[in-house]
Amino acid sequence: MITPLYALPLTALFIALSARVINYRKAQRISLGDGDDPELRGRVRAHGNCAEFAPMGLVLLLMAELAQAPAPALHFAGAALLTGRVLHAWAIGWRGPFAARVAGMVLTFLSLAAAALAAVLA
């Protein structure tokens, strides 16, 4: 199985992003919302964006794998998803360069499209 090779690091990324939000909330004593704190807002959006895109990418990757898409196509889609999510999280959650945010979304969308096509065409 190929999908778990990408699910594991994406899960680790999601947990790390979650922990960053939790720890900051605790340190700043902000229970709900963002407390009008730009740092917390960035951390929350990095976490939320991962939660919005990673599951769909993994579902599509698994569908392509179950449809017996070629392994190189699966690895391409999985690597693009993982790289895209890491770049986007860095750009949003750690205030990396805007180009990393754009590249992260391009890679994520490319991964989603590639996995969906691989699932249908396999």
TrEMBL record:
* Keyword Transmembrane helix (UniProt): yes
Q: Where are the transmembrane segments?
A: 6-22, 98-121
Keyword terms: Membrane, Transmembrane, Transmembrane helix
| UniProt feature coiled coil, ranges | none
* Principal location class: membrane
Q: Specify the superkingdom.
A: Bacteria
Name where it's found.
Answer: Membrane
Which protein are we looking at? MAPEG family protein
Record organism = Sedimentimonas flavescens
Q: What is the lineage of its organism?
A: Bacteria, Pseudomonadati, Pseudomonadota, Alphaproteobacteria, Rhodobacterales
